[in-house]
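Exercise 3.2. Students should predict the tertiary structure of the chain below and write it as structure tokens, then compare their answer with the key that follows.

Predict this chain's 3D structure.
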Amino acid sequence: MASRARAIAAEVLTRVERDEAYASIALEVALAASPGLDGRDAGLASELVHGTLRRQLALDAALAHVAGRSMARVELRVRVLLRLGAYQLMYLDRVPPRAAVNETVELCKERGLARAAGLANAVLRKLSRDPTIPLPEDPVSRLSLEESHPRWLVERWVDRLGLDEAAALCRADNLPAPLMLRTNTTRASRPALETSLRTARPEASVEDGRYAPQAIAVKGGGSPAGLPGFLEGLFQVQDEAAQLVGHAVSPAPGAQGLDVCCAPGGKSCHLAELGARVLGMDLAPRKLARAQSEAQRLGLSIAFVAADAAEALPVPNASQDFVLVDAPCSGLGTLRRHPELRYRRKPDDLPRLAGLQRAILLRAAKAVAPGGVLVYSVCSSEREEGEGQREWFLAEHPEFRPDPLPRLEGQPIGKPSDPSLFLSWPHRHGMDGFSCFRVRRG
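Answer key:
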């Protein structure tokens, strides 16, 4: 019988491939449906899911080499199991090759794919003897295959950053993202929360974040919902780059503001912790319900409303001290956390999303009061979604001017020559890739 960890991983990977589910959400659901699962097994299931997705192109190339056929020609459910077995053979030294092969064969039988058990056995045994990938000579294609990023994406990064830095970015995308917490300063201080975490989880690493003043990095502490202080609302899970967006807004105590496209609510909650009166809006009522639940857990009073940011806003024109536009985007700065996105995004997604971002910015600008600020952010470092949007916006709206971002001690991501903009990169800063700018209405 295959291990529960591998069975869970196989189910999640199938959902990601077949239904275009998000791996993190599908994994969370699968683990919640497996009460009593050992913590080590839960960790293995997570590693198998994310690792297999991060290395998918390399795995498919290695499997095609030994099988003599493209993985695109193999039935989806079988393809998923072959990748799962290949990942263990090629990237998990602690798993004996025999176990990786046998467990995959058992999974074939248990998942109604007994007809494929012989194929899995033969292909994976051959791969265990020769786990190499035929690599092309072209450096861009080689990097694409070695680090499992689509060639179009690697090519644009090489054009922008150079080959060496593009390679560093791809390698950073294939490292596990740290668990980052934002201390809820209305209920706790960062030192007090860190002391509590270290006392309850002596085996875990608990460190200050590198840049955001309320950030805590936790490694080896288990599920966030199981950490001390979660039920009491002492923290929220949020990457440091996203935390810096809240500080980019830096609302005055009591300031009234609108968080456009607010779900799942992390930035709205942060702004409320900083003392703002926040109205959060999003198109999806289901996501808003989750945001409201988080606000309640944190003890924050935030109003939420369902509305389409590309249409009419639920506030009068020129009424808000600040407007945060956390726009829909490619998500290419979050590939450490969502590796499946690299295979779903296509080159024409960027101009399409840029058009949507501009439509939202046009609406949002109308809500900013004279003297108020507009902050725009996306979890992407792509120029079309960040710097290019600021250039376009300022050309379209001469009543706005660049406004310097509030500086935080040790924050390296703002440009001294361009203090109203920050860009973060996983390989440079150890955080998600974000673009953020701040402008003020005259």
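Discussion points: Residues 414 and 422 are 4 Å apart (CA to CA). Residues 349-367 form the longest helix (19 residues).
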